[in-house]
Amino acid sequence: MKLIIDTDPGIDDAMAIAYAHASPDIDLLGLTTVFGNTHVAQSSRNARYLLDLLGADLPVATGAALPYGSDTYQPSAYVHGDEGFGHFTDVPQIGSDHPLPAAEYLVEMARVHRGELSVCAIGPLTNIADAIRMDPGFLSNLAQLVIMGGAVFCPGNITKHAEANIYHDAQAAAEVLSSEGNMVLVGLDVTLQTLYRACDFEDLAQASKATGGFLQDISRFYLEFYQNVAGEDGCGLHDSTAVIACTHPHLFQMVETAVKVDVAGEALGATRAVDTGVKVRVCRDIDGQAVVDLFTGQVASLP
Ligand code: BDR
Ligand code: CA
After folding, report:
1. Domain ranges in the chain?
2. Is the pTM value of this prediction over 0.70?
3. Cβ(122) to ligand 1 under 6 A?
4. Strand boundaries in 109-211, DSSP class E
5. Which helix (H) or strand (E) segment is 202 a member of?
6. Strand ranges inside 27-91, DSSP E
7. CATH class, 2-299 region
8. How does pLDDT run across 166-222, given as a tens digit for each residue?
9. Is residue 166 lining ligand 1, measured as CB closer than 6 Å?
10. Is 15 exposed, middle or buried (0-12, 13-18, 19+ CB in 10 A)?
11. Which atom of ligand 1 is nearest to the CA of 122?
């Protein structure tokens, strides 16, 4: 499967990118970056560092720095660390970005690989909304758009109503989720059923010294956050779960429904199943252990 990941790396983003690189089912064509867990320039810097570590010579196209309608934004440093990679800072600057901005790159790649390209969006949806604004045929050129975002049948994580990726640009999310296309929403409803514990990172690091060791290092901060804030003995494989949904949809139970995003007010970023509107497939249940095992099995095969 040809895949582009739209990402804000980000600790669980790094895990998802490593998984996609390792997976024999995925032909990873490139990354596009967005603000979110960190500022967009840092997202790109982290993406290029990670690709270099993985030995993957792939383009990184930089995208949106701010959400729609706002000139401010605060990165989620308390979840992902000051530079997005936990306690690991001063991330080396490696290589340079693709000449096209993210949305243009996405539009172009969707045209070139018409009907064959999957896009997995694991950050705020600003680049995807930009691509749809730029080319109304963008989504119909894709094989599928799989989104890590939302909390349709469960509480949010950044507020009691909203999941972080949707909350960070609710307007963009509303535009994307009301556009016609083959879309799958992989939200907290399922990603919180993929708990990855310190002992899982330890096993991963034993099997894969460079990649697994790096993921273990950066995850310490993330695990501390989950322990201190959510009282959880592990973190959710949010972004990896969305990548796995691209190639292994049979591990998920999905329902077809329209999804409305609150774009203002106390429930900003809430994702509600509603009766009218464009239907998307929302993941409602998951074989969480199978997803965890698949993730470990593939990433453990890396150096
Ligand atoms: C999502 O928000 C970010 O913090 C994670 O990288 C993931 O994409 C989970 O709500
Ligand atoms: Ca992310």
Report:
1. 2-299
2. yes
3. yes
4. 117-121, 144-148, 183-186, 195-196
5. helix 198-207
6. 27-33, 60-62
7. alpha beta
8. 999 999 999 999 999 999 999 999 999 999 999 999 999 999 999 999 999 999 999
9. no
10. buried
11. 8
